[in-house]
Amino acid sequence: MTCNLHKQEAINRTHAIDFFSNYATTLLSSGATSLRTETNIGRMAEFYNIKVIITIMPKHVQIMLTMGDESVVRVVSRTMGINFYSITELSRLSWRVVEERLDVATANKILEEIKSKKRCHIAIVTIMAGLANASFCRLFGGDYWAMFFVLIATISGFYTKHELVNKIGIDARIATIFAASISSVLSCGASMYGLGNTPEVSLATSVLYLVPGIPYINAFSDLINGHHICALSWLISALETTIC
What we know:
Layout (H helix, E strand, L loop, with lengths): L1 H28 L4 H14 L3 E6 L3 E8 L2 E8 L6 H16 L4 H13 L5 H18 L4 H25 L3 H16 L1 H4 L6 H7 L7 H12 L3 H16 L1
Antiparallel strand pairs: 1-2, 2-3
Helix pairs in contact: 1-2, 1-3, 1-4, 2-3, 3-4, 5-6, 5-9, 6-7, 6-9, 7-9, 10-11
């Protein structure tokens, strides 16, 4: 009986470390801040009566899970790919675990469903990015001709960057340079053809979609919450993109 009980505890501990490591890397890779990740994991760990210590680094996450007198450590790599849907649903999952008293197996099943959710089609995202950037143009005083050229410039640049990075495999920083060049050239159409009264606004706002907002926000969040290495990594990444 003692042997079987020890085996069952080992299986539960393995399932738990699999779930927490999977959850942490998915959440961080989606663009969540270190504070949100720690808070969500801490909420679930408290419910499961498990002690979890998480060390977040720019490219990997180390998790130490303690159940009773035994501990297990897992180091997993993290990738980058902003996904607001995953951030929202994973945060909601952490509350569901507590409120609905979900076991680890059920929580992990929901996690896999969230991960398998197909992302919005690139055509829709591209059009929405174009409309959003055209709205920024209007916000900064651009007329309708300026908005039109910003819309075309954004759609062209956004799609170009996506294809260069995801289809060809070019470094994102080089792809950013190409996208910015295309967008800025196309936005000059208002000035070249003498259309509208605010061609300078068209040019100035044509590349706003490339500004790395999430890295800047996460850098500030990690800085004020003591994750200085991650904060520096986010900041350097954001500055590289901005310079490109």
